[in-house]
Amino acid sequence: MRRRDLLKLGGLAALGATAAACGGSGSGSAGDKQLQFMYWGSTFEKKAIEAMLAQYSKKHAGVQVKPLYTPDEYDVKLNTLVAGNRLPDAGYVPMSMSFRLGEQGKLVNLFPYLKKYPQLAGYLPDAYLWSGQDNLHAIATANESMMLWFSKSATAAAGVTPPAEAASAWTWDQLVENAYKLTIDQNGKRPDESGFDPKQVKQFGISCSFTYGAAWYGFLRSNGTDFADESGRKCLLDTPEAIEVFQNLQDLVYKHRVAPGPGQLAATGDEVPGTNILLKTKRVAMVVDGHWSLLDMNESKVDYGIGVLPKYGEPFTASQVAGASAVFAGSKHEQEAVELLAFHNDPRNVDLFAKGLWMPQEKKYYEDQAAIDSWTKNELHPPEFRTVVVDYARDHGVPDLRNRLKNMSAVSSDVLTPALQEIESGKRPAGEILKAAAPKITGLLQGWQHTQAL
Questions:
Q1: What is d(CA 150, CA 309) in angstroms, rounded to the nearest whole number?
Q2: pTM
């Protein structure tokens, strides 16, 4: 919500500079082919991408790549470049926008290139983003998945051990039971003890976002339901299984008092600290968050552990929780731009995999032991990483809704997010809110995105 509000407010002053950068000639010799790569990310990601682009230019004689780092208001700036027909050659594209641009022919169809570049043909099936039959408009940049992060010292003090394998995942009741042990107020009392003060909680047991779909989508699938039916045109959030999931989330806050409510974690305004800060300060003992937090955990020297998410039936986790990467139509050097696309998320070329920000897209990095070791066998990946991340994502991952459901941006902004915020507020039961929201969402649904096997 905060990001969408910022986009509405504008911040258009920087657009002229971005457009000028996309029209620039870059660096290098006069005879070099000039490419531009547009991307967002943290300062850590910026450094890694710049190093990767320099390496690409070094390995491809006669080609120079200019990085177009755009950390803020990416959607607004990219839309402006599209409107002005001043697009870069390749780069990141917000997931929902990628489908629109693919349908409009603003992105190069990568399908014909799969035979020429076998690496691109060896990705996980859910990494491919299709705008129609044989129209592969982009790939998901990284195969990020959700998991349970925890403070080792906090869990050790309470005698709690979050499971590191899907086969031993907690049930929801077990999660609640352990969250009680990990929640303490300023006087050291727990929620099931007399005198517990819910307004003076020193450490919450668990935190899970209500409004971030990837945080709860695995729970929804684990409980035997989905966001929409097989046609993608009927919302299923008013089913008993979906209502149970969201009522359980609401109960963590208002019934069990083991999770923070709105504003209880904010340091200033409504800005909640990152998971690395929440665990390091022991403001929260366990947090549902994505794999990408590993980079910040290590950079911040957090004493963390990782575990699998709790389950209802079969355990599931949301995967492919990432933006898209694409080649923009109209590039004067399309083949080189496609080569750059294949190069830019290869673990051999960029250290964001070994450092913990990204998970690879090629299947071999989840199946071949030597390939797995190449990005996970280092001091930045904890011993349980193989079972919590590699095996868990491979065997129990379901693709993020943004990869699959059409019109998801409008669904979220118009109906879903306000409904989830109301559930988070605790003013009405989850079922009452979802039964009112589901028909409105159904009215907006346009089906699942196209998929096809290679």
A1: 12
A2: 0.90
